[in-house]
Amino acid sequence: MEVVIVKDAKAGGELIADGIADLLRRKPDALLGVATGSTPLPIYDALIAQVSAGSVDASRARIAQLDEYVGLPSGHPESYRSTVLRQVVEPLGLSPEAFMGPDGSAEDVLAACEAYDRALSEAGGVDLQILGIGTDGHIGFNEPCSSLASRTRIKTLTEQTRVDNARFFDNDIEQVPHHVITQGIGTILEARHLVLLATGEGKAEAVAQTVEGPVAALVPASALQLHPHATVVVDEAAASKLKLADYFRHTFANKPAWQGI
């Protein structure tokens, strides 16, 4: 696993955006897996800036969603579909046809999960998947003790997650859905390159368990240790509990191996 320690979130976002730009130069129609939330925003901002400056052409890129609320209409402003369209697809100048995601408003949610897993495979698979991490080590909505072989499926949100997400729903927890569709850990591991960004001291323990702890369902992100090309980008605060921090600084020195996807 590559662990790259950067100064701050902005530097991490720029580094990952450089890697995405490099991928797009080699494979213009790459399928990029995107996550929502505040953590990946510096990545999207930096990539959008590169596209606006003309340093990379993203016009043929495709975007795949990591997860989606169940029960919200696709046009709801806080659906993850709307969020990805607003934060990534539209600013990059892509058409809605370049975007794919699970149907959280489907009558048959289980069939929608299976259909999305199948669609990712039929699209050739995700070339680079952006991930965040929860303080408990979850990725996507794969909470602790999720199966490391899990596929795209419906999950029940914990009460704490609904409390945390209430800020996006006028601080009204009653508006926050109880369920989501999420790519499973097994699905996530099929991407050719996994790139996890973590910032802040609050993520330090989860990062340490992910990188240096045992592979365990209790820390879902630890499954990244099983992947042949996983890159973890962390700021100094998120790296503060890594026993091998000095080794990572010396080995990778802000230059992850983006090649070989």
Question: What can you tell me about this protein's structure?
Answer:
There is one protein chain. The chain has 261 residues and is of the alpha/beta class. Helices cover 32% and strands 16% of the residues. The chain contains 8 helices and 10 strands. The strands form 2 sheets. It has a 7-stranded parallel beta sheet, sandwiched between helices. The chain has a 3-stranded antiparallel beta sheet with strand order 4-8-7, covered by helices on one side. Helix 7 links the parallel strand 9 (193-198) and strand 10 (230-235). The model has no long low-confidence stretch (mean pLDDT 94).
Topology:
Blueprint: E1 2-6, H1 9-26, E2 31-34, H2 41-53, E3 62-65, E4 67-69, H3 80-89, E5 99-100, H4 109-122, E6 128-131, E7 153-156, H5 159-165, E8 179-182, H6 185-188, E9 193-198, H7 204-212, E10 230-235, H8 245-252
Parallel strand pairs: 1-10, 2-3, 2-6, 3-5, 6-9, 9-10
Antiparallel strand pairs: 4-8, 7-8
- Sheet with the most strands, sense and barrel status: 7 strands, parallel
What is the strand tally?
Answer: 10
What's the CATH architecture name of the domain at 2-104 and 122-131 and 189-209 and 224-233? 3-Layer(aba) Sandwich
Low-confidence spans: none
* Mean pLDDT across residues: 94
Q: Tell me which oligomeric state these chains represent.
A: single chain
The CATH topology of the domain at 2-104 and 122-131 and 189-209 and 224-233 is given as Rossmann fold
Percentage of residues in strands: 15-25%
Q: List the strand order in the largest sheet.
A: 1-10-9-6-2-3-5
Radius of gyration: 17 Å
Give the number of helices: 8
The best one-word shape is: globular
| Category from helices, strands and their pairing | alpha/beta
Taken in chain order, the helices and strands follow as EHEHEEHEHEEHEHEHEH
Specify the CATH class of the domain at 2-104 and 122-131 and 189-209 and 224-233. Answer: Alpha Beta
How far do the termini sit from each other?
14 Å
Helix content: 25-40%
